[in-house]
Amino acid sequence: xxxxxxxxxxxxxxxxxxxxxxxxxxxxxxxxxxxxxxxxxxxxxxxxxxxxxxxxxxxxxxxxxxxxxxxxxxxxxxxxxxxxxxxxxxxxxxxxxxxxxxxxxxxxxxxxxxxxxxxxxxxxxxxxxxxxxxxxxxxxxxxxxxxxxxxxxxxxxxxxxxxxxxxxxxxxxxxxxxxxxxxxxxxxxxxxxxxxxxxxxxxxxxxxxxxxxxxxxxxxxxxxxxxxxxxxxxxxxxxx
Length: 240
Ligand SMILES: C[S@@+](CC[C@H](N)C(=O)[O-])C[C@H]1O[C@@H](n2cnc3c(N)ncnc32)[C@H](O)[C@@H]1O
Fold this sequence. Notes:
- By secondary structure, this protein is an alpha/beta fold.
- 31% of the residues lie in helices and 32% in strands.
- The radius of gyration is 27 Å and the shape is elongated.
């Protein structure tokens, strides 16, 4: 989309007189001792424009980006902030597997769905799910420190999440979406439990290179709906 700018030139005296009467927005393009060149966003009655400029209207996503000012971050309203304490747990968003999961959650999660995050670390994926409109969210980890971090980060993000010290075999209910960013060795042990824990979509990551992926797909015994690669790591999506 484009809009038009109307370019005018007036003597300095006339321009400042015009400015006080005009009362609308304008842009000074250049100014010297004798004249001022300026642009308005609509034609000015009684003045002949020197030029008409076509200006592209940038969509807000392009023109309004997150802005860091010292310890503040100013965010556009459509950005979903996830605040993570730099602690001992895995999951700050720096690792490719975390980012793969975040991208796949955004693509597959539907509002109101229940979510189980297995191997939650900081809770980053559980928190992101909640921010995307998930219903009940449970985050489990076998590391007590990770569970503490998950609780802390959930509170920090005003996200209501059950952070539990548990393994997949301890969970007795099904969730609409399961996300598990683990590693092949853990998948070998846990896959049979993970398979029974989701009703609609499962997102798996923590698989490095084709060798891991190949073995994981055999363990899964299901056709993936999507495989996504980032920096040599894979994310796999299963749909029911
Ligand atoms: C790679 S981190 C993922 C952290 C976070 N979800 C992310 O995506 O950044 C894997 C986490 O799984 C946990 N974990 C390892 N084995 C597990 C198991 N059998 N059940 C649940 N969590 C497990 C680890 O303690 C660790 O916090």
